[in-house]
């Protein structure tokens, strides 16, 4: 399970959603982690795609 705080900045490493325009390196801010472990992020691009670790999605924390 992710242990990120609200507002923490993250960078996308990989996402397994073939319908998203997000690419590795995309940056955003954590909104919250829900009860099933999805990491909800407000991406700088305007997307709100959630990150699902069980699907192989991955982000890393960044300092900005």
What does this structure look like?
It is a single chain. This protein is mainly beta. It is built from no helices and 4 strands. The chain has strands spanning 9-14, 27-33, 39-43, 58-61. Strands 3-2-1-4 form a 4-stranded antiparallel beta sheet, with no helix packed on it. The radius of gyration is 10 Å and the shape is globular. The model has no long low-confidence stretch (mean pLDDT 92).
What would the average pLDDT be, to the nearest integer?
92
Distance between the termini: 23 Å
Strand content: 25-35%
Overall 3D shape: globular
Helix % is under 10%
Number of strands: 4
The tally of helices reads 0
Widest β-sheet, arrangement of strands: 3-2-1-4
Summarize the biggest pleated sheet: 4 strands, antiparallel
Secondary structural class: mainly beta
Secondary-structure element sequence?
EEEE
Unreliable runs, pLDDT <50, ≥5 residues? Answer: none
How large, in whole angstroms, is the Cα Rg? 10 Å
Layout of SSEs?
Layout: E1 9-14, E2 27-33, E3 39-43, E4 58-61
Antiparallel strand pairs: 1-2, 1-4, 2-3
Briefly summarize what is shown.
The chain is mainly β. It contains no helices and four strands.
Descriptive terms for the model:
four-stranded antiparallel beta sheet; single chain; 0% helix; mainly beta; 34% strand
């Amino acid at each position: 399970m992710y242990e990120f705080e609200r507002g923490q900045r993250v960078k996308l490493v990989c996402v397994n959603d073939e319908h998203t325009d997000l690419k590795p390196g995309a940056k955003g801010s954590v909104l919250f982690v829900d009860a099933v472990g999805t990491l909800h992020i407000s991406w700088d691009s305007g997307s709100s795609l959630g990150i699902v670790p069980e699907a192989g999605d991955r982000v890393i924390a960044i300092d900005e």
